[in-house]
Design a protein that fits this description.
This protein has two domains: 3-165; 168-244, no CATH class. Helix content is 45%, strand content 15%. By secondary structure, the chain is an alpha+beta fold. Strands 1, 2, 3, 4, 5 and 6 form a six-stranded antiparallel beta sheet that branches. The radius of gyration is 20 Å and the shape is globular.
């Protein structure tokens, strides 16, 4: 595919652009407040403009949908944003601390001291974006189609991702079921699964994950990944040793 020709085709054919005369961030805010938030009235989200986030509380958990604006946005020529989902909880980071484990979520607009889980929408199985892999492009694609897609995805992902991770036991089940294959990204799931399963007394999950990890390390892929994933592998080994010594 000729990227340049595809770009021009999309831009020239995109005749349904909302609030085109506004500056990029103002335009995105206007679309969120005038078109997206009203359709989510039953969900109780409020829009915090200073953080470009939809937020709502569920018990001790805060659910967040962050609209990340592209730093390259310019006039009406580039107007893009991406969506990240995050759940905050003030207790779990203190549990992580007891394992000397710090998981960084700065990429998701989160802070280590409160973030429980976070992911960009493109990596959430329940989120469908047929328009683009990561960025939603208002200057290239039909704006109403973008709005409709986001509304439907938020409604679906609120239940299947945000709600599923606003409870320790449900989140452990979600993470364990999502933990599909062992590669560098799969390894990143393991520390929190081990910490959660031990905290909840789910020893069968702890055992299952560690057995999978040990078996993978002996494979050709596991051996070749030792250098690339050295830090996360060392972290898993450290937590495993702490569990074996009865933390």
């Amino acid at each position: 595919m000729n990227i340049g020709l595809d770009y021009m085709r999309r831009k020239m054919s995109n005749r349904n652009q909302l609030y085109k005369d506004l500056k990029p961030k103002d335009r995105i805010v206007k679309i969120i407040t005038a078109h997206i938030v009203p359709e989510l009235g039953d969900y109780g989200f409020r829009f915090v403009k200073s953080r470009m986030q939809l937020e709502r509380n569920l018990g001790d958990f805060k659910q967040i949908i962050w609209f990340r604006t592209n730093m390259k946005n310019y006039r009406d020529e580039v107007v893009e944003f991406a969506i990240h989902l995050r759940v905050d909880n003030n207790l779990f980071p203190t549990i992580r601390d007891s394992y000397q484990y710090i998981s960084t979520f700065s990429y998701h607009n989160g802070k280590q001291e409160s973030t429980f889980i976070a992911e960009s929408a493109e990596y959430i199985d329940e989120w469908e974006n047929h328009l683009m892999n990561y960025w939603y492009s208002l200057h290239l694609d039909d704006n109403q189609q973008i709005v409709d897609s986001i509304i439907q995805n938020i409604k679906k992902a609120t239940k299947t991702y945000l709600d599923a991770n606003s409870d320790f036991e449900k989140s452990l089940e979600y993470r364990f079921n999502t933990f599909k294959e062992l590669n560098y990204f799969g390894l990143l799931w393991i520390p929190d699964i081990l910490i959660l399963s031990n905290h909840l007394g789910k020893t069968e999950i702890t055992t299952d994950v560690l057995q999978s990890f040990e078996s993978w390390r002996k494979t050709e892929d596991g051996i070749s990944s030792i250098t690339e994933g050295a830090e996360i592998i060392n972290t898993i080994e450290k937590i495993k040793n702490m569990l074996q010594h009865g933390i």
